[in-house]
Design goal:
This protein is of the alpha+beta class. The chain is 21% helix and 27% strand. The strands form 5 sheets. It has a 7-stranded mixed sheet with strand order 7-11-12-16-15-14-13, with helices on both faces. The longest helix has 23 residues, at 329-351.
Amino acid sequence: GAEVLFSVDCTKLKGYFLPEKREFDCIYFNFPHCGRKAGVVKNRELLARFFHSSAEVLAEEGEVHVALCNGQGGTPADQPRREWHNSWQIVAMAAGAGFILSDVHPFKAETIHGYKCTGYRSQDKPFCVEGALNHVFTRSAPLPRFQPMSCEIELGSQKVSFQVPQVLVDKINRGFLEASSNHPVRTIKEKLAAELGRAFPLEDADCCLPLLHQGHLSGVCHSNIFWISLSPEEAPGTEEMSNGHVDFCQDGDKNGWVSAQEGCHVSKQCYLRPSLLPDAQAIIQRGAFHPGTLHVLSGPVFRKCLISPYSPPVFHEMVFVCAVNGGTENSCIQMLVNSIKTSICSLHPAASSFKLNINLQEATSFETTELNDLAAFEYQLSKIQSFICVETDTPGSCEKRFCVGIIRTAHHQLGSSELVVVFASLNLDLLAMLICGISDWRMLWTPDRRFLRQFPRGELKLFKSFSLYPPSYVHDVSFWLPDGEELDEVAFHTVARQVSGETVVSIQLIDSFQQSETGRKSLCYRLTFQSCDKALSYREAAEMQLLFRKEINQRLRVTLR
């Protein structure tokens, strides 16, 4: 009952089928080849044209299966693996048409009903399929093309709107912690709250936490902050601010170029909250607390940071605040840590395949270079007594230590009683990554529905990536620094995040040079482009690199070489 067509050009599939017959659930192409002694370049071109053709006739959730001989594909699944330049680069060819590799498994001819191996060019010589692989491709979500976005919020007693920094457009107001969400970050938050509720009376203080802050930030590098400019008519006055502090950002912060209204010649500076700890401190200062009660705050926080797999510019923080009588703070801290350990360990066995140890470590036992961005920022913000650490031990790899939270204490006078306030802060995103085996923070924020399908409500398990062996592209950039100035690395990385839509996965300094005569300094950096969830083609990465060169020239005033 099947319709069979002969002499079909695989690069022009659309022309062989009527419009109503172009929604194929599956397209198979077993052992494509240009014929004769065609080299790898011609066969790459064949694959690229085939994938573009398939995109025109494939159903939205359809699959493209391509079987290749051992080594041809160029992925780590090939054993032995060919050098990338000597392979067919199948994942890169597919990415050009918007496909990602979602599965790869051995090609077994005997399992395919009706399949017959006709031999090498129909001769008696057998066609070797030993070690051959079947590559399964699916459609990717498109790369983001962000449009300017405004956000309206209440600041003090006044409604204000501001321009969202471009690197945060796809991350603001995602609602991961809302009651209707089944995101693993919310699941972990609810589990932590339930476990802590057994040890302490709980009070949720999430409501009405301001997204924007205005006031003094002592001891914090301003280049790590997302500054937002409000026009004079929108900016609240001192009396309208709930914390009673109004401050202005120094005009000299030229790297704060994500501000909302750069054209405003007179403006009041606000900043996106970099932590919930100031909100927790405000609860204590207002006296809006009950001694012995654990107050819980949670929400997204925003920080500029260097690019790395575990350093997002936004993550969900959960803060616990408890005021106790002096001398009992150590038992309070121990109860907090024990409850956190119990809840994480109860989530972990069902999700992860590696050992996970949780412990409390003194701040003095850490070098600042060991700290991730959460801990390093809090270290600047306030005096920290201890870090909450998670150590992972994956078979076949070295043990890694992650700081997932901090604990600090402060003294507070309540009438004639002196209380000790215990603050604890946790990075929920990092916990979700460690528990579910997610190796890249960007996957937590993917718009692809295949991510959340793996986490039915309240259930955590080991994450299985739907994009295997994504192609990576390397580009170098070298430039002269302005005379007498050093490069602001955070601003440099922030430009890369913006122009690439978070597809730059690493930035490495590979060379530096200083002219002895003039003292001018030149730097050379290597950028690696790779998407963990979307198709990224060589052409798209090259266009991002050109835009990056243009932006650092304009924003950071470097001279390109």
